[in-house]
Amino acid sequence: MSSNPAxxxxxxxxxxxxxxxxQVIEDTLLALESNAADDETINALFRAAHTIKGSAGLFDFxxxxxxxxxxxxxxxxxxDGAIRLLPPLVxxxxxxxxxxxxxxxxxxxxxxxxxxxxxxxxxxxxxxxxAQLNDYLAPAAAGGxxxxxxxxxxxxxxxxxxxxxxxxxxxxxxxGPDVLRNxxxxxxxxxxxxxxxxxxxxxxxxxxMPDAATMDPETCYLGFEIAxxxxxxxxxxxxxxxxxxxxxxxxxxxxxxxxxxYVQLIAAMPEDDIxxxxxxxxxxxxxxxxxxxxxxxxxxxxxxxxxxxxxGEILLGQQSVEAPVLNAxxxxxxxxxxxxxxxxxxxxxxxxxxxxxxxxxxxxVVASAGVNLRALALKDAALQEATASLTHLVEQIRDDALQxxxxxxxxxxxxxxxxxxxxxxxxGKEIELQIEGGDTELDKTMxxxxxxxxxxxVRNAIDHGIEAPEVRAAxxxxxxxxxxxxxxxxxxxxxxxxxxxxAGLSRERLLKKGIERGLVAPGDxxxxxxxxxLIFAPGFSTAQTVTELSGRGVGMDVVKRNIQALRGVxxxxxxxxxxxxxxxxxxxTLAIIDGFLVGVAGAMFVVPQELVIExxxxxxxxxxxxxxxxxxxxxxxLRLDQMLGSVGEPxxxxxxxxxxxxxxxxxxxxxxxxxxxxxxxxxxxxxxLGKLFQNIRGVSxxxxxxxxxxxxxxxxxxLVGSAATRLQGGTVPAHGSRALAQAV
Amino acid sequence: MSALxxxxxxxxxxGESGETSRQYLAFMLGGELYAVEILRIKEIIxxxxxxxxxxxxxxxxxxxxxxxxVLPVIDLQARFGRAPTQVAKRTCIVIVEIHSDxxxxxxxxxxxxxxxxAVNEVVEINxxxxxxxxxxxxxxxxxxxxxxxxxGKQFVILLELDKVLSVDEMASLAVQSASAPAAEQALLExxxxx
Lengths: 744, 194
Prior knowledge:
The structure holds two protein chains of two kinds. By secondary structure, chain A is an alpha+beta fold. Helix content of chain A is 47%, strand content 19%. In chain A, a hairpin with a 3-residue loop joins strand 10 (569-575) and strand 11. In chain B, a hairpin with a 2-residue loop joins strand 4 (60-66) and strand 5 (69-75). The model of chain B is unreliable at 1-18, 103-107 and 179-194 (pLDDT under 50).
């Protein structure tokens, strides 16, 4: 079974879809907390749970089926209006969602390991939850009779009026030829039916099977005659076949059905009447006598041998089905179809295929830059024109390819609804999460890597930022605090902010702590932003108390490192009593950047384009000073040739050239980079430098130029940081100065 | 490169002298003969088009572009604590594969270029022709040596590549050189003397 690739694929899809369903459940439950529950949302909940259960049954994940079934039953009662969705139940259901997620993860792990492992912890937790859920189900026993009557299809048709003697359901199913190709295993359906009740007999019908020579092993020729003893209603039984509904002929006969219905069944199925009749007898659905009576009756009034009817028609054909039930079923079918239609607008693609494509596009960009350089050198106008249009196209392809990886931030942001809710509750705080700009798109890899830093920031804000309701009320603020996650585009990069309206950071406390930790010299005058950014130094925490959530001081420096690893910058602003805002500025993508190519001492370096503000000609410089006058502003600059050490030619030749200053944006302000030559913009494919260079400061990555040579990408903030380190080297202990430099 | 084509005499006696006859690539480094196991070598390329990486210790010569990936190039002489290799006509870059020391990172191999003065030939050395390294007398760190191979009357130093090119160790050396006070002092002095 596990060696069947189609099935494996279907199973992967099942895991992915079930996770999406769980997300739907969670989102819906959270929405229910703020809005009154309407029928549609409750139906959505029920459908999601039901789909998980149904598909899990297909793949024989019995633990998921068992647990989800209980959840589904509770939701069923909610849907029936027997119980109301009150906050405690919502909380319980949220936890149940987590449990299903845990079961899914274990099922996935078991599938990979090819041997199920025991999971006592989850099982115990599951049992606990089931016990709690049963509290909601318990009254059902009392109201059971009432419910039954409200559910007419579950009521067995009395044995009178020509009904047969058998007390079980009879299910006739003929699978379509494409069932196997669609990744379905007919046996799974039988197995799932078995979970609804007791299988009395299963007869395989393989009359459609041709000779071995002409048989196509990928085509399904099977059908089953199944006798099932169950309390389930027709809908439930029919639902078992939901996944092949359009691809099978299905007839379900309730217990004590009329003999005529069996006759109709025999006639409708493609097999020989007598043969089928024998099968029915063997399965115990009919007695010999009943069969004989039925077949002779058939001879007189021939039932038209219509084509295998659709489910709806079958349901109509049975008097036991009432109109509302039928409508519901049809309605449901319609919705499933709608969902299928919606899904077809998306194509699931493996992430590594996409990465491969983007890598290739990256190489294409480099190659076309190379061709361009050659064409310029050859001074052939026609060739230049051709390469120009080629470059244009390649750029379009690059942009489109990168678009493929873009995902909306809303999904990531929405995940915090739950975290904020749970954490706030745990701490006895009232916090509302506001999300702005959820439709902002960002590279998928970036989004994944952002999750951790965001989590840190959100937890910090909840734990330390927003005050307890009483404190807030005393300060004249609304009891309910607001936490805002916002994202927006800003000049080629993404700006993500985490903002709370809490107490804000105390400048004095930070400064005091900074001095304690030796990060700041006691006499130093620091600007507000310098003080606030001390919080990003390793091991720095201002929280009075260490809670389970945060305050251990391992958070913020990790956040900063993570953001820097994404070639982003993070800064923090705060107003006492008004709140704290953490701002992260990130590039749109990791794979390709727009770079600005500069020459320094004979070597080429790339400055990320988004950091470049302008380029100016270097004025006649006093060699003792490392600052210049930029339209009245003091602009400190770095002499890159000296900073980057012994690169290329000796320093002596430098002054013979006309040098330039590239003005770049740093964490808090501007800085200049003194370079020898400017080579303009350049689309750059980022190549990792590898582990050997992981500790290097000032260079973040490498890239390959059009001529095949490697150029290094400068890490401007680290360069500026190390310059600051050197200047303060005399007054601050070495470890402290490094920490400060990282905080700059 | 012509040296490569005249491979070792075909003394394939795998059946007779046991399982332990292995092929090594012999190369020259500062007038001495060294060898590394051939299975570790991916290719040998001409020296050139190297980009220097600033703020790295002298044994990191720079990075090269090998068909789209950026590889570091290590100067073995400098790694052994000697003067950096002078680039000459026969200078080559040997591309080797390094396995990380750490157990969990065992699956991650890294590709590194190694600068050598000249590539000699592929030789076959039997396990019983390999002596343990002497306790002193060889002027490189003992843990860099896998053994001393006998090649006629000559000895060849068989290098323990994973140790010589240990990425973790080299990276930590890079930090020391980048943030060592001495280096900063030198930078400041250069600033002042400018």
